[in-house]
UniProtKB/TrEMBL annotation:
Residues 24-112 form the Rhodanese domain. Coiled coil: none annotated. This is Rhodanese-related sulfurtransferase. It comes from Thalassovita taeanensis. Keywords: Transferase. InterPro entries: GlpE_sulfurtransferase, Rhodanese-like_dom, Rhodanese-like_dom_sf. It holds the Pfam family Rhodanese.
Length: 125
């Protein structure tokens, strides 16, 4: 994990492996900041959706029980969300490096769309 200090805040960049392990142990809340269309086409099962275009840092829950880790398609939007959260006064926040593309490249499970039927399906198959 990479850590950056911004004022009094800590901004963490987690690897796919760190994110997957913590998510499997129910230690984090994983929030997808991609568009609803991207999420519907394929997403990490159990990840919540909070699109960047609707992001309001003040509406985030506290992190006393579980940490929040954001992800997007490549890591660009999730980093932007984290920096906005820090500007809004959140003192500890994280995102997943490489985003959903890195998650898929690491062969982590996700829900995709069966192109023949349009139905959701678990991947990798």
């Amino acid at each position: 994990m990479k850590t950056e200090t911004i004022g009094t805040a800590t901004f963490e960049t987690w690897t796919v492996a760190e994110t997957a392990d913590a998510f499997a142990r129910d230690e984090i809340v994983l929030i997808d900041v991609r568009t609803p269309q991207e999420y519907m086409f394929e997403h990490i099962e159990g990840a919540l959706l909070m699109p960047l275009s609707f992001f309001k840092a003040g509406k985030l829950p506290g992190q006393s029980d579980k940490r929040i880790v954001f992800h997007c398609g490549s890591g660009v939007r999730s980093e932007r969300v984290c920096r906005a959260a820090i500007e809004a006064g959140i003192t500890q926040i994280a995102h997943m490096e490489g985003g959903f593309a890195a998650w898929k490249a690491a062969q982590q499970p996700y829900i995709g769309t069966n192109m023949a039927t349009g139905a959701p399906q678990r991947a990798p198959a």
